[in-house]
Amino acid sequence: MTSRVLRALAVAATAITLTTGTAVAAHAAANPYERGPAPTLSALQASRGPYAVSQTSVSSLSVSGFGGGEIYYPTTTGDGTFGAIAISPGFTAYWSSISWLGPRLASHGFVVIGIETNSTLDQPASRGTQLLAALDYLTQRSSVRTRIDASRLAVAGHSMGGGGSLEAASDRPSLQAAVPLAPWNADKTWSELQVPTLIIGGESDTVAAVSSHSIPFYNSIPASAEKSYLELDNASHFFPQSTNTPTAVQAVAWLKRFVDNDTRYDQFICPGPSSTAISDYRSTCPLS
């Protein structure tokens, strides 16, 4: 059989309808990082994704550079390795204040570490350094390190933890995504950022007002990095401290798109969400 014929057969195989196993295999081969079923809005809005999740605690005595925390990970061993996310709580807060994010994100096919900071008073720059230390621990020494693809890492955080996620993304441009939630940072300019960044702010935030934090942060990030801004209608600074479905939907879509390179999630980013729960949405609209 000639090489020309073989190439033609390969092209034909990829064009087969997705109702056949052959096409599914060809599609999966095109993106080896794709995990989980085709997404739907209702699936993203559910309290859990398709993966069962286990949890393990990390003692502050067993790590350096951050204060320990909780790890959440998919229990399956049949889907290869997963991307990983480190998340920081905010000023004076503990991981428990935003811990719902751990199993929610992990159930969509990520390994998540929610960190405790060295001090609850740590500023954003310190929290950024701690997020990176947590990722290094996850990929190099943790009990789940064999479940992680160390080339596909992301950061997130609330308030000063959100500001810390910007710091981490600035310091380590190899990260695949950042998701600051109601971020606070004295530095308003992030023109050096190369990491795809989703900022989620609260319209009625009086601690890190979107007019002086989230929006200037978003505007300063270059479009070439890929960025989105979601503003929650009438939400306070503390919206991440209780289960927030619009936050979960957009965070999962962003992480799946940029950590897993999964273009099936483009539909949730561009043109983006629209509901009474959202007062503003902006995006550079990544293309498949």
UniProtKB/TrEMBL annotation:
Q: Where is the PET hydrolase/cutinase-like domain?
A: 28-286
Query: Which UniProt keywords are given for this protein, alphabetically ordered?
Result: Hydrolase, Signal
InterPro entries, per the entry: AB_hydrolase_fold, FrsA_esterase, PET_hydrolase/cutinase-like
GO MF annotation, one: hydrolase activity
Give the signal peptide, or none.
Answer: 1-25
Q: Does this UniProt record's set of keywords contain Hydrolase?
A: yes
Gene3D superfamilies hit by this protein: alpha/beta hydrolase
PANTHER family, alphabetized:
DIENELACTONE HYDROLASE DOMAIN-CONTAINING PROTEIN-RELATED, POLYKETIDE TRANSFERASE AF380
Belongs to which family?
Belongs to the AB hydrolase superfamily.
Q: What is this protein called?
A: Alpha/beta hydrolase family protein
Species, as recorded: Actinoplanes subglobosus
